[in-house]
Design brief:
Order of helices and strands: EEEEEHEEEEEH
Radius of gyration: 18 Å
Strand order of the largest sheet: 8-1-2-10-9
Oligomer: single chain
Structural class: mainly beta
Number of domains: 1
Number of strands: 10
Strand content: 35-45%
CATH class: Mainly Beta
Length: 161
């Protein structure tokens, strides 16, 4: 009689779009990403926080664009490489573009490998992370886009007040 194979256990994974800001790698869940575009023409908007780079017209839809390096106070400025992109994200019913240095890859990560983020310090990224993923000799910081959007909205309201 033939022995039946044990049923395969399903491994739950998350697909992430990985990008760089300076020398640090970040990720966002692919389901938040609408598209990735080249940086073309940004229209500046007066009296906005310094991290708001401007707005773009994406097929008739006006979208605000933020510079994550400025938002997260990334210290190292790198020369333009031509690899810079805008990741168009939707969270909480809002569409926004995020300027990044480079989109590096799309990866699948087993949920069991999503390490809990350390709550270190009071930095701009503290509290905005969903997980930390080991990657070679570095880490990928998985952003919680809901928290990122909430913090941006709060900061914009504080700027207006």
């Amino acid at each position: 009689m033939k022995k039946e194979a044990a049923p395969q256990e399903k491994v739950l994974t998350e697909q992430l779009v990985v990008f760089s800001l300076g020398e640090q790698y970040y990720g966002v869940n692919i389901f938040s990403v609408q598209e990735i575009i080249r940086i073309d023409h940004l229209t500046p908007v007066p009296r906005t926080p310094s991290f708001v780079q401007g707005i773009i017209n994406l097929r008739g839809k006006i979208i605000p664009v933020i510079d994550l390096k400025k938002r997260f106070n990334c210290s190292r400025e790198m020369a333009a490489t031509g690899e810079e992109r805008i990741i168009v994200i939707e969270a909480q019913g809002t569409v926004m573009g995020m300027m990044v240095d480079q989109v590096t890859e799309v990866i699948s990560v087993p949920r069991s490998q999503l390490g809990v983020p350390l709550q270190i310090g009071e930095g701009k990224v503290a509290g905005l992370l969903k997980a930390v993923i080991p990657r070679g000799d570095g880490m990928i910081m998985l952003l919680d886009m809901e928290k990122v959007f909430c913090s941006l909205q709060k900061e914009q309201k504080d700027n207006i007040a």
